[in-house]
Amino acid sequence: MLRNSPADPPAQDAPLYPRDRTRHPPAFTPDYKTAVTRSPRLPLASVKPSLLENTGPRFSVAELGARDNDLLINFAAPGESAIGERILVHGQVRDQSGRPVPETLVEVWQANAGGRYRHRNDTYFAPIDPNFGGCGRVLTDAEGYYEFRTVRPGPYPWENGPNAWRPAHIHFSVFGSGFGQRLITQMYFEGDPLIPLCPILSTLPDEAARDQLVAPLDMNAAIPLDSLAYRFDIVLRGRRSTMFENRPEGN
Amino acid sequence: MPRRSTSLTETPSQTAGPYVHIGLVPAQAGFEIFERNFSNHIAGAGPRIRISGRVFDGIGAPITDVLVESWQADAEGRFDGPGFRGWARAASDFDSGEWVIETVRPGAVAEPGGTVLAPQIGLWIVARGINIGLSTRIYFPEEAAANAADPVLSRVPPHRRGTLLAQKQGVEGDVQGYRFDIVVQGEGETVFFDA
User: How far is it, in rounded angstroms, from Cα A16 to Cα A53?
Assistant: First the structure.
């Protein structure tokens, strides 16, 4: 007997869809050298998602500060602002079924406009911006939308090869409602000529998957005389929704 | 009624990179920015435990820029127990590679279908050079009967099960210590799950 309409939201702990690993990078990617010794050799053990994957931590607005999603000022002295191209980054977090993922934690980090990270292990000689921390966080709203203000990060060289450069990118960490949806990824900028040269983006064998990480310029969301905008939509693993006889379909 | 769902493809993973600390544990990157920070300490009722370990790469070196997150049920086996959030985040020490999580001992979990999961803690591991987060589980050596009945652990080949068992250490105050070292690649490679 059909218990729930397919249009109903799934139970919070309904089973996750299997992850389509062909859309993700393999563990062993020799052109990204650090992965060579940090990739499992043995196959992953496939198991049915349990409550350990189907449930996950929830976060509340009270845990965040009012300026946490404004990287222009969240580390700046009063009245000051980060140096660089002012941008707005926004998008919607949905699951594979197209359902918005509300009130989920999105965390971002990035280099400053010169390509330098505020991190004790970054020794690139582009200067630290005293008014830029380079991290932010926000909860999606009831419809899964998020946004933050920042500066466009600069590209920077790294030690993967004699003349290797990272394209401009922003790191994203997203939770979803189940720990099995946990995702860390990177957002790139439409039109960046370094994109096809990047060994990290090239760990993705699938062109459509690579394109999914490139945020288009969004002139409709740009703020005239203030900020350009980029749109980065995020899709997390989906959940089964149809229940038969009180049990998730197919289980 | 036809199903109305659309079918989207999941956003692909990318490595967390060497500067993951900036975004997820800024104090470790070397600065303070947020008023409230997430921690490696889970509050809740029940016996206290401390789990520490290192993550080793394919040449046996500790990965000193690793970040570990954990997710677990409360002492009664509930993931949604009142006032309890069984999630922690720990970055390793940049020199030793040691990470520590302090929490409550999780209880056995009854799944909706009636299956019982042995007490366990889920771990998710990211770092520079790890292209997609690695998932593993910590089980407890003194739970022999529950472990033998666990639907996942019992299906792991016997010679690899040990990689999922914490090693009991001493007691400090009222906190029972455990060690859980992880081998990402090579001899003694930890079992990682696609769940």
Answer: 8
